[in-house]
Design a protein that fits this description.
Layout: E1 10-13, E2 39-43, E3 47-52, E4 55-62, H1 67-72, E5 78-87
Parallel strand pairs: 1-2, 4-5
Antiparallel strand pairs: 2-3, 3-4
Amino acid sequence: MDLAVGAKEIRVLVEHTTKSGAPRIRRRCEYPLTAARAVRRIYTDLAVIDVTTDGLAVREIAEDIDFTRLQAKTEAALRAAPDLKPLRAPPV
C-alpha cells in the first residue's frame, strides 16, 4: 500500500463481491487510507466504474447483469453514466 502514497491517480482491479457474496465496493473504506481520494476508476468482473466528485458512475456493465442487480451487489450508491454501454468479453 505504500506504493499508493503520493499517487495522483489509482485504478483498481477487483472482483465485485467477496467469495461469500458481500460487496467489495463500499460507501466508506474500512482500511487505513494511504492515498485518500486517489482512486479514479474501478474495474470489476461485472462493471467499469468511474469515481467522480458526484459519486460512482457506471461506464460499462457486463451483458448478463442489469443495473438493478449490479446495485444490489454494491453497498455504495451507483449511477449510470450518460454513455453507459455493455461490457463485452473479447472473442476467444
